[in-house]
Amino acid sequence: MTWLNEGHDVHIIWMTDGRAGFRKSRDLGELEDCEDTRITEDELARRRLAEADIAGEFLGLKKSNRHFLKFYDQELKQNVNEAILRIKDLVKDADRFVISSANNNHPDHQATYEIAVKVAEDLNMINLEFYVYALYNPLKAQGENLVKIRIGDLRFKVYKALKLHKTEFYTKDMHWQTLAMRDRRRERFGVYKLEDKGKFYNF
């Protein structure tokens, strides 16, 4: 949002289709039992992608800047090479990637990291900045590699965008995670370049 407001040409690439979103919660008994959760994975994928598209529009992303690769949720690791081929032309002129951290125990997040780094290597994007965020593992960036971006009142718009992902809210964790986003005034990133690969925990 901050970068959009500054005039940057922001794109989002959704790698997977979200079809596995109810699996773990169902197995743990943490999924709300109602008609909307008793659907096929194909239908969940359709809804998740539609919600993501609506949220992207709400945030101000042009239709042409919203990209959906539609790989099956939880199977991105098996499709790394195809994903690389499909996004090369989309990102060849980018100056920043915002990606999930290395050492990630979520298979799709780890695969996303690997895809982004390999694309940058293949295209020799030596000046590209990687803005790395951590979800399931800690962000250990320090010193000049740690960047804090003030989001101020923009957090309320991000909160509303998250609420547009209605199917997410049938699982318990999403409620407190979304409230945490609403109350967060800064976003923290580790910022790296290709030459830093392998030198840091998050990269």
Short key terms for the protein model shown above:
7 helices, alpha/beta, 203 residues, globular
Question: How do the strands and helices of this protein lay out in sequence?
Answer:
Blueprint: H1 2-5, E1 12-16, H2 23-28, H3 41-58, E2 66-71, H4 80-91, E3 96-100, H5 107-122, E4 129-133, E5 146-150, H6 154-163, H7 173-183, E6 186-192
Structure notes:
The chain has 203 residues and is α/β, with parallel strands linked by helices. It has one domain: LmbE-like (Rossmann fold, 3-Layer(aba) Sandwich). 38% of the residues lie in helices and 16% in strands. The chain contains seven helices and six strands, in the order αβααβαβαββααβ. The strands form two sheets. It has a four-stranded mixed beta sheet with strand order 3-4-6-5. Helix 5 links the parallel strand 3 and strand 4. Helix 4 crosses helix 5 and helix 6 runs antiparallel to helix 7. The model has no long low-confidence stretch (mean pLDDT 94).
User: How much is the average pLDDT?
Assistant: 94
Biggest β-sheet description: 4 strands, mixed
Measure the end-to-end span.
24 Å
Integer count of domains: 1
Quick description:
The protein is an alpha/beta fold and 203 residues long. The chain has helices at residues 2-5, 23-28, 41-58, 80-91, 107-122, 154-163, 173-183; strands at residues 12-16, 66-71, 96-100, 129-133, 146-150, 186-192. 38% of the residues lie in helices and 16% in strands.
